[in-house]
Amino acid sequence: MEKSHIKQEIHMTEALMNRINELISHYPADKKKSALLPVLHEVQDAHDNWLSVELQNKVAEILEIKPIEVYEVVTFYTMFNQRPIGKYMFEFCQTSPCCQRGVEDLMDYTCEKLGVKVGEPTPDGQFEVRGVECLGACGYAPMMQLGDFYQEHLTKEKIDQLIADCKDGKITLHDK
Ligand code: FES
């Protein structure tokens, strides 16, 4: 389990709790656990895009389930982060079709350009690179996810432009 020793401030604001309760209300009263995935997304979005163990425990308490049931989900899906991550997370698909279209060279190029290794944020916390499994956009290989959006048919020139746009604040990360 890739957990962080960094302390995370937990802010279960009224607005966040209202949103969580609304999500829970979509399921039968004795099946609160069914809301786990959307609740984790909401809670992560409200906490700088990561979920400490303490925060995962809080989610378990709200949904009246065991903490291990939350840990199992958080450790399985790469969209949940167990430590603070770079603001601009370049998530390159590393499955065969993207590999055949040169994604590994592009990852190396990106890491070199940013001066980082895979899985290590830049010292200013702005950028990070990681590899993920197939993102279901194989026909647009090589591709990656940046925030909520896919970046497709990647080339070194596109990577250069994306990094420049991130630095200039021109990249939108979320679709809501
Ligand atoms: S192999 Fe890369 S999106 Fe499917």
Describe, in short, the structure shown:
This protein is an alpha+beta fold.
Task: Show the helix and strand layout.
Elements: H1 14-24, H2 36-45, H3 53-63, H4 67-76, E1 88-93, H5 96-100, H6 103-114, E2 127-132, E3 144-146, E4 149-151, H7 156-167
Parallel strand pairs: 1-2
Antiparallel strand pairs: 1-3, 3-4
Helix pairs in contact: 1-2, 2-3, 3-4
The protein binds FE2/S2 (inorganic) cluster.
Keywords: 2Fe-2S, Iron, Iron-sulfur, Metal-binding
Cofactor: [2Fe-2S] cluster
GO molecular function, one term: NADH dehydrogenase activity
Annotation keywords:
single chain, 176 residues, alpha+beta, Arc Repressor Mutant, subunit A, 4-stranded mixed β-sheet, 40% helix, elongated, binds FE2/S2 (inorganic) cluster, Thioredoxin-like_sf, 2 iron, 2 sulfur cluster binding, NuoE-like, NADH dehydrogenase subunit E, metal ion binding
What does this structure look like?
With 176 residues, the protein is of the alpha+beta class. Helix content is 40%, strand content 10%. It folds into two domains: 14-76, Orthogonal Bundle (Arc Repressor Mutant, subunit A); 88-167, Glutaredoxin (3-Layer(aba) Sandwich), CATH 3.40.30. It has helices spanning 14-24, 36-45, 53-63, 67-76, 96-100, 103-114, 156-167, and strands at residues 88-93, 127-132, 144-146, 149-151. The mean pLDDT is 95. FE2/S2 (inorganic) cluster binds at residues 93, 95, 97-98, 134-138, 141, 143.
